[in-house]
What we know:
Chain A is α/β, with parallel strands linked by helices.
Amino acid sequence: MIARDRNPYLPYPVRIEEIITETGDHSLKTFKLVFLDPADEARFAFLPGQFAEISVAGKGEIPIGIASSPTEKGYLLFTVQKMGVVTSHLHSMRPGDRLGLRGPLGNWYPWERMEGRNVVIIGGGCAFSTLRSSIVYMTDPSRRPKFKRLTAVYGARCLSLLLYSDRLDEWKGEKSGIDMHVTVDAMQESEPRTPRWQCHVGFVPAVVKEKIKDPTDAIVILCGPPAMLKFTLPVLKEAGFADGQIYLSLENRMKCGIGMCGRCNVGGKLVCKDGPVFSLAELGELPRET
Amino acid sequence: MRTRYYERDAFPPAVAELRRAYRVFVPVRRGDFHAFAEWDDSVRPDFDYRKTRVPPKGLVFPQSERLLVFSTDERDPEHDILREAPKDFPPQAVVGIRPYDAMAFRVLEVNFDTPEVRDPWWLRRREATTLIGLARADEDATMFRTENYAGPFDERGLDVIVYDLGRGYLAKALGEKGEAALAAMGGDEPAADALREVEERIARAATPELPAGRLRAQPAAPELPTGRLRAQPVVPLFEAEFWDEVAAPCLNCGVCTFLCPTCWCFDIQDEVRKQEGDRIRNWDSCMFPLYTLHASGHNPRGKKTQRVRNRFMHKLKYYLDKYDRGVMCVGCGRCVEACPVNIDIREVAARLNGFGEQVERHDR
């Protein structure tokens, strides 16, 4: 959260340290950002699930989920899809260029509830970023004992669109502390890289149906495109998960990110301030307008 | 509590005294309408005005405001680092503001001064502002009362209330800011009859049952029907069938939001001239489809009905539920007056408030 006495519109100056092109189609890049003033890093204390406004001077700001974990010190990661004015400009920038960063903003996944429980992580496409943050956070040796069984299902359209390939290799390893299921909608003939580990072929809901069967003492955190959510939620309900056990991260157009400019509301709730993470039970009480 | 009396002709010169210590904003005639303008030698205040077309909201929350500045010149060691635009917040007095427009600042403040974050421009400008209100029972036919507007003598949002007694004005300070302003304005101790007359006028305005004509100069504005709104569950209201009917004539012109003293939505844009850049905040409107359009092309409120519904639900239900301080409306009637297709918040409030009643009757 931004300190109450700080001007909440004023970004922290950051430098692009590294740019990683994540996907074969170059539509997704991960930006590794370092604070110009190292003291700002402590002011930016966050939890996985939160987001920040990345500020490109002269172009504007965009709200982006934080992809790195609080356990990864000295830098922040943001995975950005090339889409509009600001993101297109970001994709043309180089290491060394300056950006601004406002945040951390919004709420986070329900960490207090997740401790001591089984955690299921379900993600699809570019929405996997805050789930990457969560998995790195939970599998960190200092934090892993706090959680019981960790299971993840992560899907993309094809192998070349999977994010964080270095981490996937690690999570698929035997000592990773997480049962990781990766799936692609279809295997392309011309895949640039064949993974060493087993990859499912099929949509996320089908893999969830096969692998996620036990709702006992479990919390599910979910982030993905609308189609994935639409078909995954019924599978979870069929398996016996209650609405209060399922948490989703929402998106909406934002400007201020601090609950003032008004546009990101769903009913009386603001996605930027009351969210972006809501339980399915909370969403059930809101008007359906996303 | 300081009270002062001014003869009719003595009031403008007393207000002029404030110009020594404040930037003074007063109602002035602009063509067929009135507007608040800074009182310099080029304008003449008109305290007999009824309502400005655009509310004085912008004196605290400007229509356009430069928030941050930056340089994009890479030779500048501070390039691409945003910093606060340097500016002053000199004391300002808004003289002649009507009680509903003053109450609007109380409606707005919950958005800009919150337990978690505070908008620094709102805070500083609000702190620098003294509201000297004009109380006169001259509500027009588009006006109405809400929890946030109790009538023409509502002093809750004001620092000084000035009663127009016809032959003169009686001013009463309502706090520290008001005491300071009234001390600067000078004036005389009011006579007992002036004080008595104020009380009579207030009593008259508060008693709408009195026979019209002899005692009542003006009929009292009606209450906005909102009594059942809090108990109404939000989802059925949202899904009510009448929204298409309410929205059908709407042209999406946005005038209702532009003229509303309690609307706060804004946009933020960057502008660069040569290599000097500004980050600017502008009023925005939930009536425009671009307001919610995602970069992906998806729009959660792409249809007119969705936008009209959001505006009324925000004002009459979401705000009420979230802050527990009434509806987000001060009854000024500007949206009723200016809407080119006669969409009327009083009718919409009645529909929301009465929602479910017909069904219940039918069931019996």
